[in-house]
Amino acid sequence: MAINEETVRQVAKLAKLEIEEESVHAFTKEMDSIIEMVEQLEGLDTEGIEGTYHGLQQHNVWREDKAEKGTDREELFKNVKTRKDGFIEVPEMFENGGSEA
Amino acid sequence: MDFMDYTLEELHEQLVKKEVTAVELVEAAYARIDATDEQVGAFLALNKEEALKAARETDEKGIDPHNVLSGIPVGIKDNILTKGVTTTASSKMLEDFVPVYDATATEKLREAGMIFVGKLNMDEFAMGGSTENSAFKLTRNPWDLSKVPGGSSGGSAAAVAAGQVPVSLGSDTGGSVREPAAFTGLVGMKPTYGRVSRYGLIAFGSSLDQIGPFTRTVKDNALVLNAISGHDPKDSTSFEGETPDFTEQIDQGVKGLRIGVPKEYFNEDAKETGVIESVRAALKVYEEMGAEIVDVSLPHSRYGIPAYYIIASSEASSNLQRFDGIRYGYRAEDTHSLEDIYVKSRSEGFGLEVKRRIMLGTFSLSSGFYDAHFKKAAQARTLIRKDFDTVFADVDVLVSPTTTSTAFDIGGKIDDPLAMYMSDILTVPVNLAGVPSLSIPCGFSNDMPVGMQLIGNHFDEQMLYRVAYAFEQATDHHKQKPAFKGGE
User: Cα–Cα distance between B445 and B452 in angstroms, integer?
Assistant: First the structure.
């Protein structure tokens, strides 16, 4: 086994995802086979090879530091679920009412 | 009006001569959608009122005789932003999302006078090879309705194959334009990384993603790529060099060209032998036309799938962090803490395959696994890229099958993620290397279309179109029409 159920729970926590307890076992098995597949890379000798992290070898891209008009604020609010006083309104965020925040 | 009978240049000529109007073309698109989409399921949203209005304006203004795309209907994959028209990436997360701006590719097509018919189904966030991962509907292959159209751009492929629109846009991160093009008998392009701006393309694997067109013919495809290419200040990874006219050398033939045949891409033990047989027959055609066929090797090909799934998933896990239930997108109800909003919104909003990729990516980037996974995959990517550099010092273009089989049955691989991932085995190295690649129809196996993949050197799309065009002129595979097998 490349990973176990405990690792899956931990990774889910990092990824802000919830894997329902009854499906953790099946999900772990599936992830394990995927990870085993990607770990075929272990057989490749990469000693001294630089990694490629970009699609195109282009260096720093600059533009003039000149103010330009952005997207209209009202437009940007169109996909906001709930708003109040010109702000995005969100549900309750602090279990204790925020006194310790 | 049957879009399957005309090239873009022929439609354009009819528009210029006023034998047909832009309104009539748009009406023909909706009539065809009405007649076929209940079976095919390509479209997620239609833009009828706006499209007819735009077509009327085009007719009143008059067709620009120098602009072949003016007044032509087009369908857009649902991960490419279209101002004022829902763009969901086939995810519950973005079910009601209406963009307030256009993607650059959308804007360029709008400027060219194309008319937006609607948005096309896909695998959720472009993750998949069958379009079965859509949160909303199933898309079927017009050649055989019991089979998948491929993915992730399955709606874009099915719509053109079914004659609903003459052109569509898709996106290709690991084969998502080429595989569905192969499965539905179309021409599909994955341009060089950087050729087309990614601004307004919902990000999946940012170092791999490219937008590309689906068309019935090679020249049509080049004409659409002409319109969407070019540097964009809004995408700092877009290429700053010149954009050539991709049709310029299209009719120069293949005499004297060196066509490389990578041995790793021809699995002689494949279950469906008809695919390799069709491609070998195509190579014979090239040989008869005076091309030289050269055996070559891309020795690191077998590491393409593992490297791709680590890199694409890692980039996706990072890109998809923005979906937090706060500013836009799906928000869970009955939440009581910040953690609750994040976790519940994401767990309810994302589908199973998206969660798998986020999990794999998060794992590969986590401390303790970063070196063995993400760094190792990046190094493998360098070696894969070098393989291509080496062969392109010797040959002009590479030819291989696009896929190892023709379109598979709906439901055939959906419960086996690894089998689904392996469908990308011949397409992902191209994205890792950033080179351009075109899939064109080259024959049939079990009555289903076979795709031939042409791979070119960086920014040499002209060569791909030239080599593809020569084959198309010599054969008639692209003229075959889908049977809608299994339909009423």
Answer: 13
Q: How far apart, in whole angstroms, are the C-alpha atoms of residue B143 and residue B134?
A: 20
Instruction: List CB contacts (< 8 A) between A61 and chain B.
Output: 236
Distance, in Å, from the CA atom of B158 to the CA atom of B177, rounded to the nearest integer, reads: 12
Distances (CA, A) of B473 to B129, B158, B283, B467: 30, 24, 14, 10
User: Is the CB of B300 less than 8 angstroms away from the CB of A44?
Assistant: yes
pLDDT at residue A66 greater than cutoff 70? yes
| pTM of the complete model | 0.97
CB-based contacts of A72: which residues, under 8 Å, 6+ apart? Answer: B100
The domain spans of chain A are 5-42
> Which chain A residues have a beta carbon less than 8 Å from that of B317?
15
> Which DSSP string do the residues of B120-145 spell out, in sequence order?
E--SGGG--SSSTT-SS----BTTBT
Q: How many CB atoms lie within 10 A of CB B122?
A: 33
- Give dist(CA A38, CA A33) in Å, integer: 9
Contact by Cβ (8 Å): B461, B189: yes
Residues 6+ apart with CB under 8 A from B165: B3, B29, B73, B74, B75, B117, B159
Q: What is the ipTM of this complex?
A: 0.93
Beta-carbon separation of A31 and B356 below 8 A? yes
Which B residues in the span 322-341 are in contact with A, Cβ-Cβ below 8 Å? 324, 326-329, 331, 335-339, 341
What is residue B321's DSSP assignment? Answer: G
Residue partners of B401: CB distance under 8 A and separation at least 6: B182, B265, B266, B275, B276, B278, B279, B426, B450, B451, B452, B453
Contact A55 B208 (CB under 8 A): yes
Pairwise CB contact (< 8 Å): B418 & A95: no
pLDDT of B19-71, one tens digit each?
Answer: 999 999 999 999 999 999 999 999 999 999 999 999 999 999 999 999 999 99
Which residue of B lies nearest to A36 if distances are taken between CA atoms?
B306
Cα B484 vs. chain centroid, distance in angstroms?
A: 22
Q: Render pLDDT for B349-370 as a digit per residue (tens, 0 to 9).
A: 999 999 999 999 999 999 889 9
Q: How many CA atoms lie within 13 A of B358 on its CB side?
A: 25
Of A3, A41, A55, the CB nearest to B307: A41
Going by C-beta distance under 8 Å and a sequence separation of 6 or more, which residues neighbour residue B86? B44, B45, B78, B96, B97, B98, B119
Residue type, B94: L
Model confidence pLDDT, tens digit, residues B270-289: 889 999 999 999 999 999 99
Q: What is the pLDDT of residue A101?
A: 42
Q: Is B95:B345 a contact under the CB 8 Å cutoff?
A: no
